[in-house]
Write a structure and sequence with these properties.
Blueprint lengths: L1 E2 L1 H9 L1 H6 L3 H22 L6 E5 L12 E3 L4 E9 L5 E9 L5 E2 L3 E5 L4 E8 L5 E13 L5 E7 L4 E5 L8 H11 L13 E7 L11 H6 L4 E6 L5 E7 L7 E2 L11 E2 H18 L3 E7 L3 E5 L7 H10 L10 H11 L5 E6 L3 H6 L1 H9 L3 E7 L2 H7 L5 H26 L3 E5 L4 H14 L4
Parallel strand pairs: 3-11, 14-17, 14-19, 19-20, 20-21
Antiparallel strand pairs: 1-10, 2-4, 4-8, 5-7, 5-9, 6-8, 9-10, 9-11, 12-13, 15-16, 17-18
Length: about 450
């Protein structure tokens, strides 16, 4: 049984006759008995919530892989079918409850369902977290004809919505593809094409590198002829996502909700990985993916170039930061087991000096000796803001701590570079294009 606000209002109004009565105690008892009788009658006349039958709209249940999907920041509608199998008309509310991070609207639906009829209610979800979001419970509340009280019952109606990474860095893809086409010679340029795979011969123009002159072909013609080259294709790019404790830190600003707390580093790393995967697949390279902390959390290997992006998004959707220290040795071993030929290994992690000293640095030579390695890290812009503060004593201490953190970060990056590892360290909004540019630069220089 539940009581409505109307019951409280009636009880409040009963204070007046009690206060004005010559026999307040007797008046109080009489009014209390009357109100209790009305509440009991209202509950008895209310329809039973047990008579309602619920179902979800969808082609297949979530257990069969048919749950709806949406990108983070996009609304998604869930439909609940409510059927009244009882003998009485059901008047009241139905609430389809979800986790607070899903931001379900409206909170409750007003329903009026005749016996034997059904009604369709739609709850709009505006999630602010990525991953699999599960429904909590469906609560039906039947109100009696007097509006004083009613019946309530909750039951599970399982459903889930998979919230995919938003891939906001997609906006940088056209400009990077234009650079790639220029490198491959699909656009007219006056400079020597870079790379190590021979493409074609053409006449010499001012600005060409004299080292590209083909003297034998020149001897057979009246004009000077140069070789053109194109970037290597059919290379392998392995994206390794560190899902350990350092990936849980929130940096920047959440671009989908304007939350100053920002996204976790893991989400920014995912966004950068998606842009690089899209670019590499268009460049003709094979892209593999591995998410790891103490164990493998997800993996995509052997996907075709046309399907790799969809597979990556699906694999990343359910990943969450694990509050454990990553096992770098196991991570390197997992890459070596799956990748035999020389490849470009992009490790998306954090330049945390203590974590790298104890974990990655001792085993990284095993990887860099066989593969080309890039370590990509998301820098926290708040550190730069703290380093600029000097207005009072507290800010001076904060600035000193920030400077120490930046120096440690620069030192660990320098050590990685001395070990033959490329380092991309950029703020959250810049990490994706910076990593894509580094890939293009390596491809143009023939380092892949």
């Amino acid at each position: 049984m539940i009581l409505t606000g109307r019951t409280g209002l009636v009880a409040l109004l009963c204070v007046l006759p009690v206060a004005l009565s010559s026999w307040p105690a007797t008046t109080f008892v009489v009014l209390l008995v009357v109100l209790a009788a009305l509440v009991t009658l209202d509950v008895a006349l209310a329809a039973s919530p047990r008579a309602l039958e619920f179902g979800r709209d969808g082609d297949t249940p979530p257990q069969a892989g048919g749950a709806p999907t949406a990108r983070l920041g996009q609304p998604v509608d869930t439909v609940l079918q409510v059927a009244n199998a009882g003998r009485r008309r059901f008047r009241g509310q139905v609430r389809d409850a979800w986790a607070p991070s899903v931001r379900a609207e409206p909170r409750a639906h007003v329903v009026d369902i005749a016996a034997g009829q059904r009604q369709r209610v739609v709850t709009r979800l505006r999630p602010i977290r990525r991953g699999d979001q599960h429904s909590a419970a469906v609560t039906a509340r039947a109100i009696g004809p007097l509006g004083l009280a009613g019946r309530q019952r909750s039951q599970q109606v399982p459903w889930q919505v998979r919230i995919l990474p938003p891939f906001l860095s997609r906006k940088h893809l056209p400009s990077r593809l234009a650079k790639l086409r220029e490198m491959e010679g699909l656009l007219p340029v006056l400079i020597r094409g870079q790379g190590t795979e021979f493409d074609s011969l053409r006449e010499y123009v001012v600005g060409d590198d004299v080292r590209s002159i083909d003297w034998r072909a020149t001897a057979r013609r009246a004009d000077v002829v140069v070789r053109t080259w194109r970037p290597e294709r059919d290379r392998r790019v392995v994206l390794v996502l560190d899902t350990g404790r350092t990936s849980a830190g929130r940096v920047g600003v959440d671009p989908t909700a304007g939350d100053p707390g920002g996204w976790p580093r893991l989400d920014w790393s995912m966004d950068a990985a998606l842009l690089l995967a899209a670019l590499a697949s268009r460049a003709g390279d094979h892209v593999d993916f591995l998410a790891h902390d103490r164990e493998v959390r997800a993996g995509v290997f052997g996907a075709s170039r046309t399907e790799v992006l969809a597979h990556l998004v699906e694999a990343m959707a359910a990943l969450q930061p694990a509050l454990v220290e990553s096992d770098a040795a196991a991570m390197v071993a997992a890459v070596q087991r799956r990748v035999r030929r020389r490849a470009l290994v992009v490790l998306l992690t954090d330049l945390n000096a203590s974590a790298l000293d104890e974990g990655l640095m001792p085993v990284l030579p095993q990887l860099s000796s066989k593969h080309q390695v890039i370590v990509a890290a998301v820098a926290d812009p708040r550190v730069d803001r703290l380093a600029a503060g000097r207005s009072d004593a507290a800010q001076v201490y904060d600035a000193a701590a920030a400077e120490r953190s930046r120096n440690e970060r620069r030192a660990i990056a320098a050590r990685l570079r001395r070990g033959g590892v490329d380092v991309v360290d950029a703020p959250p909004e810049e990490i994706a294009p910076a990593l894509a540019d580094r890939y293009l630069a390596m491809k143009a220089a023939g380092r892949l």
